[in-house]
Amino acid sequence: MCPEKVQDFNNVSLSRNTVVRRIGDLSDNLKLQLRDKACAFDFYSIACDESTDATDTAQLLIFLRGVDDNFCCTEELLDMMSLKGTTTGKNIFEAVSKAVEKMGLKWDKLCGVTTDGAPAMTGERKGMASMVCAKVKESGGEAVRMHCIIHQEALYAKTVQLGDVMNTVVKTVNIIRARGLYHREFQAFLSDVDAEYGDVLYHSDVRWLSRSITAPTECNVLDIIDLRKNFEQDPQGKEVPINGMIVLHCRPPEGVPVAEVEWLKNEELVSSLTDDNIDTRADHNLIINEARLSDSGNYTCLASNIVAKRRSATATVIVFVNGGWSLWTEWSPCNVPCGRGVQKRSRTCTNPAPLNGGAFCEGMSVQKITCNALCPIDGGWDEWSEWTICSSQCERQRSRECNSPAPRHRGKICEGNSEATENCTDGLCTQSMDSTNDVALYSGLGAGIIAVAILVVAVMLYRKNHSEYGVDVIDSSALTGGFQSFNFKTTRQGNPLLLNSSMQPDLTVGRTYSTPLCFQDSTDKDLFDPLPDIKVKVQSSFMVSLGVAERAEFHAKAPAETFPRDLSRDYCSTMDRRKKGLLTLNGPLSTAKEQLRTTGVFGHPGGRLVVPNTGVSLLVPHGAVAENMSWEMYMVINQGEASVQTLEGCEILLGPEVMYGPPGLDLFCPVAMTIAHCAEVDAENWNIQLKRKTQDSKWEEVMSVEEESTSCYCLMDSSSCHLLLDQPGSYALVGEPLTQAAVKRLKLAVFGSMEASSMNYSLRVYCVDDTPHAFQGVVAAEKTRGGQLLEEPKMLPFRANTFSLQVSIQDVPQFLWSIKPFTTCQEFSFPQVWCSNQQPLHCAFSLERYSPATAHLSCKISVRQVKGHEQILQVYTAVAETEKESVPFFMQTDCTITSQTGPKAFKIPLSIRQRICATFDTANAKGKDWQLLAQKLHLDRNLGYFAKQQSPSAVILSLWEARHQDTADLDSLASALEEIGKIHSKSSPKDQEEPESDFNHIHAGTLCGTDKLTSEKTEDSAPEYTG
Which intervals hold domain Ig-like (predicted)? Predict the structure, then answer.
């Protein structure tokens, strides 16, 4: 057939690689066809069968039958997989899942599973079929299990007459195993021929594949399963130059069937199908036509047949590159300025550079030649020319040129003037000169002097205006009854909170510092000396609630009695007045523990304790102490490290450890304690707990912030934690990060001071937990060093991502200042920063000025966490010899203890408080009880704690007082009561009358109380604010 095409058929390549490639292409095409059909299946079923072949490898066959919307059925082999290791139901289910998902089939369309009777297939709980059905049900479908696969080959083996074959095999096996001598000789024979198996194989009724490899005669039973161990020729390592040919020879061991050979490079298969530069077809050899650097590696010849696989010795192939010279450079200039010298040029062995042991370039890398440089000839003046005739200006001139000799070859030019002028009348010239030039000269000089004088006056006025301090004081004392906070806002002319008024203001920053103050009498005149001008704005938020919008503005020059004196007695009844008229940082002047302790005597009216500048306070509610009885209560902040040593795991302190007492304290209702913290509160990233110290100085968990508890109550705000406590003791807020997204806030501050040498200036950067108490350690250290705050402290979010914190100094004027090498960037490790536990960290930069005339320093301090946030501290300061008084914050140092008792300690008047409690503690059929009050005040979590209290409304109001102690604003409470009244007014008329009157009384009482407090405050305070 087609005799003319015989030559064309002979030219078709039928090598093993070609056949394998074409079989692979056919297989891929069949898979694509099956995938296209499977996408159209409305329903499908699978049949699975697992059996073991002659090499004891479990083979899993998966058949697929599907039907589309045209009722066209398709039945194909879905996949065949080899199961390595165990063949449990889970292993088979994973293989089936992989095949189904690879084909893109959906589980909810599977309607039937068919298996054989093996336990791994049909197990009720761990069988493959049960797992498949559960998977289908989970996807929204339903599948039926069937057991109807019968091994036809097993039935055929039992019925067909194979006696002529099997009898011979059985007799041979029996003879070998009948006697020990025969058995040992047979094992020695297997060892001599390097057989895969070390003993005779037994006949099996179950494994049909085992039967298929058993020969019908005695003479070739072992030849079929044989593959020797040793290669007849192993590949040898070589060193080949680049672009050379690589030939690796391999002769595999003998075996039946004949072993197929593959090549591995660095344990990865080498294929000539993907690389035209490689040929593996020539008699098992590996040929690389043109060697490349990437062809270097370890090559292994792999021989395999149905019985086993053999690996040859590894051959190391190195592709080396011999070095080559680059082009010559240009000749260098002559090495002498005058006379005979040398010129040279060079080249390098980099075109290419030798690699992998390649030879270095041969020849000289430098060439030299002689040169003659022309000597320079300096120029000389010619003789002067004749004088010119006398001009109208009574002058004559003469000239000369530099040509005797002219300068050549880099010689010097002539020195002196080339022209000369003299008076030609011996000073007797009487010609009249025009005076207009003198008039212009003197007019310009006068205008310049006037401009300079105007500029000096403008600069003096500008400095005077910018040296003044502008302060807005918002007074809300009418709400607090005397226990208020003052908000100091920086003006736009400059920042009076910083030490150096010469620092350029950042107009984009608006910072507000809010903290309780203690007031002094008129003897503290020097307290406000740094403030030459103060503008005070007073407005009561009760006026806002009453609709009164008038504001009173008072102006005063800095002297004494700027603030009311009578309130100082309420706040500082127990303070030590040993120091007068000082301003300090937001912290104590020393680290003495008595400065972080406050005491007070409280009776039935209750009161409040505050540790100044720490964010820690204690509210004792009205009625907590029995009538005709009083307790001396105290509050102490532990500044030591004993608390840290007993924490567990990844826990860190988020605020100071606070203890209140005395231990035998007996109160009728819980006290409200406020503690500042440094965590960015997020339940997904933090596990925050309240812990109490036991008698053996160990910490025990009281409650988790996110859990409800009836033993105590915890309310987390953005910067403070408010606690309701029944038992005195030591408490601490402890946090454990749950994810790397957990953030705690750091406060950054930079201080500066002159060192012992007047030429050195020290910058110290502090990183401390962002709580007022933690910053006190920084203040104490800088007070002893005489440090000055150079920039407003800034907040840096520090993430729990295990990356360190880097501090670097930038933009230092190199021509004015020098810094030690390798100190411009310093680093804190992550554990140092994360586990600082309220202890400050700092690093120092030591700078030296080149001249004593350098009076200013400007630079930037960058503080950044690797893969986190960054803050820039801008430093611009004067470094004069005289030290300045450090005034970073408006804080008085002589008020170390504050306590207040009686009604003035609370924002809500007692009568209004009692009316609210009487109204809301009584259960109402419409649900208008204390639970609604808690909801409107946003305190509606952990209601079980309030429910067990004798007066839930009183405890809710105490918590509200503690939460709003710094805002001094009753608007939120008034709005909540008004909203409750509106809700109540919508109820039925007959159920409305009496409760309506209660709410109206509360609202009216609130307004009356507001008016009264406002008037009283105005009468007491007005004389104090007169200029």
Answer: 216-318
Q: What is the pLDDT of residue 319?
A: 93
CB 71 within 8 A of CB 63: no
State residue 93's pLDDT score: 92
Neighbours of 6 (CB within 10 A): 10
CA–CA separation, 355 and 543 (whole Å): 87
- E strand or H helix at 488: strand 485-489
Predicted TM-score of the model (pTM): 0.45
Structure tokens at 557: 């020059």
- Same domain, residue pair 720 and 604: yes
Of 77, 74, 132, nearest to 107 by C-alpha is 132
Contact 80, 62 (CB under 8 A): yes
* Single residue among 259, 294, 320 that ends a domain in this structure: 320
| DSSP output for 670-739 | -EEEEEE--B---TTTEEEEEEEE-TTS-EEEEEETTS--SS-EEEE-SSEEEEEESS-EEEEEEEEESS
Residue located via tokens 């078709």? 12
The whole-number pLDDT of residue 196 equals: 65
Hey, what's the torsion of the CAs at 448, 449, 455, 460, to 10 degrees?
Answer: 170
Q: Looking at residue 715, which CATH number applies to its domain?
A: 2.60.220.30
Q: How far apart are CA 522 and CA 534, in angstroms?
A: 17
What distance in Å separates the CA atoms of residue 503 and residue 856, rounded to the nearest whole number?
10
Instruction: Give the residue-averaged pLDDT of 168-195.
Output: 81
pLDDT band at 179 (very low <50, low <70, confident <90, very high): confident
pLDDT tens digits for 915-940?
888 888 876 645 557 888 888 888 88
Instruction: Give me the number of domains the chain comprises.
Output: 5
Q: Which two tokens stand for residue 924?
A: 């109402």
Question: How far is residue 571's CA from residue 588's CA, in Å, rounded to a whole number?
Answer: 17
Range of the domain at 349: 324-373
Task: Classify residue 644: in a domain, yes or no.
Answer: yes
Instruction: Tell me whether residue 32 is in a domain.
Output: yes
Tell me if 119 is assigned to some domain: yes
Give per-residue pLDDT as tens, 542-571.
333 333 333 333 333 333 333 333 333 333
What is the C-alpha separation between 990 and 330, in angstroms, rounded? 111
* Residue ranges of E strands in 339-473: 339-346, 366-373, 395-399, 419-423
- The DSSP element (H or E) to which 260 belongs, if any, is strand 260-265
**Structural domain contains residue 63:** yes
Is the domain of 122 the same as that of 249?
Answer: no
First CA to last CA across the chain, in angstroms?
126
Give the pairing type, strands 729-737 and 743-754.
unpaired
pLDDT confidence bin for 46, thresholds 50/70/90: very high
Judge whether 100 and 139 are in contact, CB under 8 Å.
Answer: no
